[in-house]
Every structure is written in structure tokens, then in C-alpha cells.
Amino acid sequence: MSRLLVLVRHGQSDWNLKNLFTGWKDPDLTEAGIAEARAAGRKLKEQGIVFDRAYTSDLIRAQHTLALIQEELGQTDLPVVRDLALNERNYGDLSGLNKDDARQRWGEEQVHVWRRSYDVPPPGGESLKDTVARVLPYYVQNILPAVLRGEKVLVAAHGNSLRALLMVLERLTPETIPTVELATGVPLVYRLNADSTVESKAILEA
């Protein structure tokens, strides 16, 4: 039984390029992001993985990334579930603002707290703790059971929603998770034990 779980953060989006807080806003991929997604698909194809199902968020940058990966894999008929539970962290009033402009408005220290603390949300938005509280039940109820049945599962989502999953998979703490960075378009390949702990992890870097 394979118990394979692959996580991929979406390729570079237009707002990543412009240094804007994105959150639940819905910009698409840049040309570089499209290339990253296709490269991720090729890396996974080199591993010979044939997926059984995929999950993604309600946002186009993650959906587009998944579609491009599927094209490269030759698995465009893969069953896909889209759910806002896997959406990026909601940045509230920061959404759409340039990060440098936000620092000028609220101060470097305050913006750093909003971005990197575990449990302090920006105005009108979610903290990482809030995001974890949204993502983890969905993982436990929907994604993990499929993996434990022996299905090969692909998840294309976002930096913060995937960091929520890493907290469980890698047993990270509220103190350590804020420092974890996920590169865009780089697959993380996990093989799980029967008790849902991680047997192995591989990073398929370009």
C-alpha cells in the first residue's frame, strides 16, 4: 500500500510578482508561475506517480496550477475536489495592498506580527491559527482517509493552507511553523505509515 500524499504550493501569481497581500483575492498565475506548475508536473511524472484523486482550493491560482500539473502528467481525467477550506489565509484589510505600503501605514513591527505570528490576525482577516482551524478538519475528514486507503493523493493549494498540513505531518509547533517557507511550484512527496505519521519525505526541487 502506497499511502502517498503530494503537496504543491501554486506557481507564482500576478500578485506575488507585484508584492501584494493576496489572501482570498483571485489573481491568476504569471508566465513564470505557469512554467513552475509545468515543471512540477514533469518532476512528478519522472517519479512515475499515477494519482487517484486531487484536491485544490476555491482560488484560480491553485486550480490553474493543478490543471497544468495534470496536463504534464497526462492525467487530465483525475477526479478533482475544490473546496474553500483549502484557501489561502484571509488577509482581511491587507488584501490587495503592497507589502511595503502596508509597512509604511502600520509600521514594520506590526506588519511583521500580522505576517509571522501564529495567533494574531490582521484587521478583518485570519491568523495562521485560524487557517489551521479551517484546514485541519478538512484534511482529517477528507484527504487523510483517502491516503490511508492506499490512494495516491495530490493537493495543490497555498503557502499558509499547506503550512497547516505541515504542522500535522511534521509535528511542527506554533513556535516553529511561522518560520517555515514553501517555495512556489515545488512538490513535497510524503509517504505515510498506517498510523498517519510520516514514513518519508522528498522535495522535488527544480
UniProtKB/TrEMBL annotation:
Gene3D superfamilies per the UniProt record, alphabetical: Phosphoglycerate mutase-like
Superkingdom of source: Bacteria
GO molecular function, one term: phosphoglycerate mutase activity
Pfam family, any one: His_Phos_1
Site, as annotated: Transition state stabilizer: 158
The EC number(s) this enzyme carries: 5.4.2.11
Description of how the protein assembles with itself and partners: Homodimer.
Name used for this protein in its record: 2,3-bisphosphoglycerate-dependent phosphoglycerate mutase
